[in-house]
Write a structure and sequence with these properties.
By secondary structure, the protein is an all-alpha fold. The chain has one domain (about 1-160). It has six helices and no strands. Helix 1 runs antiparallel to helix 2 (about 45-70). The longest helix has about 40 residues, at about 1-40. It is elongated. One of its GO terms (cellular component) is plasma membrane. Its main location: membrane. GO terms for molecular function: transmembrane transporter activity. One of its GO terms (biological process) is C4-dicarboxylate transport.
Length: about 160
């Protein structure tokens, strides 16, 4: 169990630093692009593409952090009125459904990327598949964090029995 805690601790730190790095890169590239465009009248066509791809990365990796921190949107009016044991059971069921959806999406998106990911982006000249791989990677990590939540909820459920 200590090994898992160390692995998740390292993964948590890595995700925070990665997302912070992506957001910092977006801010830096936007500032430099605006500065070059309006002060020196220099325009690079690849910078807009880079900003979009970095923003997509922050969105997906931010979603992972949202799941990790249990900050995703929930409508819990009915669930809040349930007894504690049933509430935990419903939470476990919802997490299992979430895991199923993200695993299926990750698998299907990976197969789709193999079929359509070869063309190059116009500005950066990298295969679209490199950018598209954000989806299965992010969804696999979401499944891992949801799985961790299921384990924690099951142990909490056992304590309340």
């Amino acid at each position: 169990m200590k090994i898992l805690k160390k692995i998740f601790s390292g993964l948590d730190k890595g995700l925070y630093y990665w997302d912070f790095g992506l957001m910092s890169a977006v801010a830096f590239v936007v500032i430099v692009t605006v500065f070059l465009r309006y002060i020196f009248n220099i325009v690079f066509n690849w910078t807009e593409e880079l900003i979009i791809f970095l923003f997509i990365g922050t969105t997906y990796f931010g979603a992972i952090l949202g799941v990790k921190e249990n900050e995703h949107i929930k409508i819990s009016i009915a669930k809040d009125k349930l007894p504690p044991k049933i509430k935990i059971a419903v939470d476990i069921l919802i997490s299992c459904i979430n895991i199923s959806v993200v695993v299926i999406t990750a698998y299907l998106s990976r197969n789709w990327i193999e079929k359509v990911g070869r063309p190059l982006t116009p500005g950066l000249k990298i295969p679209y598949g490199v950018i598209y791989m954000i989806v299965p990677i992010a969804f696999a990590l979401i499944a891992i964090y949801e799985g961790r939540e299921v384990v924690l909820k099951i142990s909490d459920f056992k304590k309340k029995i």
